[in-house]
Write a structure and sequence with these properties.
Blueprint (H helix, E strand, L loop, with lengths): L11 H7 L4 H15 L5 E5 L2 E5 L3 E7 L4 E4 L2 H6 L9 E2 L2 E4 L7 H22 L6
Antiparallel strand pairs: 1-2, 2-3, 3-4, 4-6, 5-6
Length: 132
C-alpha cells in the first residue's frame, strides 16, 4: 500500500507499520504462520517493495493492496493446493484474500512447507552428484 512518491520500506516491520488496519493485522497473522513453518535460517527482506521470505532463494512473499492482501508462494504450490484454494482468487503465483480475513494459519503452514520441499527438491536435482 505504498504511495508512488513514498520511500521504499527499510524492512518488513517498516512495511507493516505503513499498512493501515485491518490489513496490517491480517499480514501480521500470515507472517507469524510463515515464520512458524519456515526453516530457522529463513530471512525476511524487502524485494519489489514488499515483504519476502528467503530460504535458498525466494520462499514466499506477501503484500497489502487497496482491497485485498496477497501471498506469493509460486505457481507449483498453488497448483498442488488448487482444491484447498478454490475459495480464493488465484493467478499463476498469487493467492488473494480479504484485508480483514487472513488465510488460516494451517493453510499458510502447508503452503510454506510445500514451498520448502519444492526448493529442496530443486536443489537436489541441480547439485552435482558425488562420486563413490
Amino acid at each position: 500500500m505504498r504511495k508512488a512518491n513514498a520511500s521504499a520500506p527499510a524492512n518488513v516491520d517498516d512495511y507493516l507499520a505503513r499498512v493501515p488496519e485491518p490489513a496490517r493485522g491480517t499480514l501480521n497473522r500470515v507472517r507469524a504462520a510463515i515464520r512458524s513453518a519456515a526453516p530457522p535460517e529463513t530471512t525476511e527482506t524487502i524485494s519489489y517493495g514488499m515483504p519476502m521470505f528467503k530460504y535458498k532463494g525466494m520462499l514466499v512473499g506477501l503484500a497489502a493492496f487497496g482491497k485485498h492482501c496477497s501471498l506469493f508462494p509460486g505457481p507449483g504450490v498453488i497448483e498442488t493446493f488448487r482444491k484447498e484454494l478454490e475459495s480464493f482468487p488465484t493467478s499463476k503465483g498469487t493467492i488473494r484474500f480479504p484485508v480483514d480475513k487472513p488465510l488460516s494459519a494451517a493453510l499458510v503452514k502447508k503452503l510454506v512447507r510445500a514451498r520448502v520441499a519444492e526448493i529442496e527438491a530443486k536443489n537436489r536435482r541441480s547439485s552435482p552428484r558425488q562420486l563413490a
